[in-house]
Amino acid sequence: ADPDPLQDFCVADVSASPSVNGFPCKASSQITSDDFFFDGLSKAGNTTNLYRATVTAGNVLAFPGLNTLGISMNRVDFAPGGLNPPHSHPRASESGVVIKGKLLVGFVTTNNVYYSKVLSAGQMFVVPRGLVHFQLNVGKGKALAFTAFNSHLPGASVLSFNLFASTPSIPDAVLTKAFQVDDDVINNIRSKFGF
Ligand code: GLV
Ligand code: MN
Predict the structure, then answer these.
(1) Quick one: 114 and 195 in the same domain?
(2) pLDDT per residue over 104-147, tens digit each?
(3) In this model, does residue 37 exceed pLDDT 90?
(4) Which ligand 1 atom minimizes the distance to the CA of 76?
(5) Are residues 143 and 181 in the same domain?
(6) How far away, in angstroms, is 122 Cα from ligand 2 center?
(7) Ligand 1 pocket: which residues have CB below 6 Å?
(8) What's the whole-number mean pLDDT along residues 27-53?
(9) Are residues 179 and 109 in the same domain?
């Protein structure tokens, strides 16, 4: 979904402020082989958290060589029962491959049609750009997946955090009406996220 590059590469100068379509380029005299390799996805992420799953991002912020190239990848680790919670990527479609374990992978269309399948090692999935999706570890052990995006910075809007853990909070009057529940239900959900 990102625009096409206008040069071979533009390694991000991450010390500079991001500009309209990414970071400014590092001076070519400063560029080395290391700019085009990244080992940040080699280790399992820490899954000791609310959802028992963690996304390790290999986007332009972590891997400056991706700047302006319109691609990036994540690693997603799941403890047993772990969930990568419903979220969407405003700037990219996603495809993924399960490396280990068994994942229930699902997405919902803008017309509220739900598509899903349980995948095991070697099987792939796709999530069309912007659609809400999740992965749930339904196997007995840990699970691992790698995902790929057509953006150097796909962004991720996590629905539960957007709605119940924003700063400042969305007013109760909005959320009680949106979900047709009382304030105590909204406050109970907020409290799970430390809000
Ligand atoms: C999985 O959905 C991911 O965004 O990496
Ligand atoms: Mn995703």
Answers:
(1) no
(2) 999 999 999 999 999 999 999 999 999 999 999 999 999 999 99
(3) yes
(4) 5
(5) no
(6) 18
(7) 55, 74, 76, 84, 94, 133, 135, 147, 156
(8) 97
(9) no
Looking at the fold, whether 119 and 186 belong to one and the same domain comes out as no
**Residue of 87, 116, 134, 158 best suited for mutating to test ligand 1, as the one with most atoms within 8 Å of CB:** 87
Distance 115 CA to ligand 2 centre (A): 15
Whole-prediction pTM value?
Answer: 0.95
Q: With bands split at pLDDT 50, 70 and 90, how would you rate the model's confidence at 75?
A: very high
Of the candidates 103, 69, 100, 71, the residue with the CA atom closest to the CA atom of residue 84: 103
Tell me how far the alpha carbon of residue 12 lies from the centroid of ligand 2, in angstroms. 24
| pLDDT greater than 90 at residue 1 | no
What is the residue with the minimal CA distance to atom 2 of ligand 1?
A: 134
CA of 78, nearest ligand number: 1
Range of the domain at 177: 165-195
Q: Are residues 171 and 148 in the same domain?
A: no
Domain presence at residue 23: no
In this predicted complex, what is the ipTM? Answer: 0.98
Which tens digits make up the pLDDT trace of 13-30?
988 988 888 899 999 999
